[in-house]
Amino acid sequence: MADKKLSVAFIGTGIMGAPIAGHILDAGYPVTVYNRTAAKAEPLIERGAVWAESASDAVRGADVVFTMVGYPEDVEELYLAGDGILAASKPGAILIDLTTSSPALARDIAGAAAVSERVAFDCPVTGGEAGAIAGTLTAIAGATERDIEPVRAILETFTSKIFCFGGAGKGQSAKLSNQVALAASMVGMADALSFAQQEGLDLEQVREMILSGTGSTGVLATLAPKALDGDWKPGFKVRHFIKDLGLALAEAEERDIALPGCDVAFTLYDMLEAIGGAELGTQAITLLYQEEAEAVAAGLDWSLYTAEHEHDDECGCGNDHAHSDHECGCGHDHAHGEHECCHGEGHHHEHGEGCCCHHGE
Ligand code: NAP
After folding, report:
1. What integer best gives the mean pLDDT of the chain?
2. For the residues 270-284, what does the mean pLDDT come to?
3. Against a cut of 0.85, is the pTM above it?
4. pLDDT score for 3
5. Are 115 and 197 members of one domain?
6. At what angle do helices 238-254 and 170-198 cross, to 10 degrees?
7. CATH number at residue 32
């Protein structure tokens, strides 16, 4: 039974935050909301949430604070600024960051909270916009079962599974593991659909066939239909996925391990962002494999990539090499994930001549 006496502040009412806050509200908790763009909180206010003029105002007096913003920088500023959540919340408050963010930052916030008599833990989620709307997200807590007990009932208003990883930052590390798996699934979906298309197969039939076997993924089940319908609206924004893959790659680099699948996905999403795809949904990766007309119809512009990523001289090989087929010819036996050839720039993409795709065909 939910303890409806707990008051909740919710900061960040975007694609994920708005439906999550809605579930908390529907369960009978008093909810105060704040979002950078006020209009995105209006539907919640119409349903009974109280608007606050700032994050600090929202959290003052709240028993439980949720944040669901975009980037680690947003989280850092919100919690650690002089007039931020740590300073403005009351002693004893429980502060829960749902954002996919940095493990190290989560540890810093939890440490700072502990010395100021608050409790803070990271609790990113997975399940996408559909899971947020249905209230069936998976919570990934950087906390113990005991830590989450006082707020379990609130978490259960928008989740169907809660995993406790035992300590600050571990929720974020586990979520990044999830994103590493997702990265390979996204590339797998895009590669498979492109291959099937080139083989002249019925793509929906191929999708159903793969879903019936071991190659099945959630991506093929939920995102491939959007890609096949030309629906590029975000569920999950390309720019947020790049943030997540960058966080995972940075952690991996610190530990001196390679994540080649993640690296390939990062390069492809970086390319998609460079040609104007930052605000599209992650299923738009398939546009990298398509004829230019489809990319243009989705608002993309390949000339932006060519302009931004000219780096023949940096590579040193002088070749106008394509992304997917390693036609560099520079003589290096370069591992794709290490970008030895192009020094982290991603492989040069000369539109019409290469990439993963069939441009110019
Ligand atoms: P979103 O729609 O961009 O929502 C983020 C919201 O946070 C925006 O409304 C933004 O305000 C607000 N915000 C940012 N900084 C703020 C600040 N300092 N004060 C107040 N509000 C602030 O993104 P989303 O899709 O909900 O994703 C949120 C986070 O969850 C991201 O870290 C993402 O990686 C992660 N995530 C997303 C999904 C998904 O499928 N979408 C799934 C799991 C995890 P504005 O309205 O002004 O931009």
Report:
1. 88
2. 98
3. yes
4. 56
5. no
6. 120
7. 3.40.50.720
